[in-house]
Amino acid sequence: MVYARSASTTLGECCRNVVIVHLEHIRGKIKGAASLQLESQSQVKEGGALAFPLEDDDKIINGYECPRHSQPWQAFLTTNNKRWCGAVLINEWWLVSAAHCYKPPSTLTVHLGEHNLVEEEGTEQHIKVAKAINHPGYISWTADNDFMLIKLQRPVQFNEYIQPIQLASSCALAGSQCLVSGWGNLKISEVQYPDVLQCLQVPILSDATCRQAYKNQITSNMFCAGFMEGGRDSCQGDSGGPLVCDGVLQGVVSWGDECAKANAPGVYAKVCNYNAWVEEIIGKN
Predict the structure, then answer these.
(1) Localized where (predicted)?
(2) What distance in Å separates the CA atoms of residue 114 and residue 111, rounded to the nearest whole number?
(3) Which helix (H) or strand (E) holds 284?
């Protein structure tokens, strides 16, 4: 099942004609954040899933309200004033997100210091994007290297509500307890959006379990976290958001098979693989 939802918008530039082929066990969870209308049925190949963000559909399934401003690195992106994807602050100028969330920088705004999206809390900062740089190894049809750097037009002003997080320098072990966060639909089979940031504790799964769940689709730049019995998960729209273990960023929400489905845990970009590239890009820009 392709996990798209009806809306009046059409596929964006990042997503036109992007199809994951031969993914017989994936039925549509690239975890983006916008409700999109397919331009034609020919975009979907049998046994495949579209790789696109889904607007206004970011989910933490069966999580809980995060303590207010407990995730001060949490950000979200809007494109042309529509909510798009999650992102993570790593210093005063730069954030990371998922490569499949790419949009032309001139259309993107980063929102920080948010908790309740329907209240003006006085803690928010909204900053336009200067650059969005996908990892050169990103392959849209496999979601390998689903990792993007975002540079702001002006620096963030740090305070108790907005702080960066350190990138993991070593990879987390299987069994590590981590926290994923985002805003969005609270239900698996219906729509119920929360106003406040949602959190969920998830364990990192072994590579063997991850590969068993997704056969030949897991690369060395991915790992799984979640519950094999299903019921709790991140989902569309949490794309680009943080998975934090022991106070460092270990994962970026990437993809999976539907939402909170048994034997189909969430898949994350492995942050510990990207330190050298991040240093190189920041040094040059």
Answers:
(1) Secreted, Extracellular space
(2) 7
(3) helix 275-284
3-class SS of residue 278: helix
Chain center to CA of 1: 20
As a whole number of angstroms, the distance between CA 121 and CA 166 comes to 26
To 5 degrees, how large is the angle CA 82–CA 85–CA 87?
Answer: 125
At 120-170, the pLDDT tens digits run 999 999 999 999 999 999 999 999 999 999 999 999 999 999 999 999 999
> Closest Cα partner for 36 from 9, 67, 16?
9
Report the 10 Å Cβ neighbour count for 120: 7
Rounded Cα–Cα distance for residues 20 and 139 (Å): 10
| Tokens, residue 135 | 């990892």
pLDDT in tens, 221-268: 999 999 776 445 565 557 899 999 999 999 999 998 665 566 679 999
Query: Which domains occur in the chain, in start order?
Result: 71-164 (2.40.10.10), 166-273 (2.40.10.10)
How many angstroms from the chain centroid is the CA of residue 258?
Answer: 14
What pTM, to 2 d.p., does this model score? 0.81
**Helix count (H) and strand count (E) of the chain?**
2, 19
17 conformational bin, left if phi > 0, alpha if psi -120 to 50, beta if neither = left
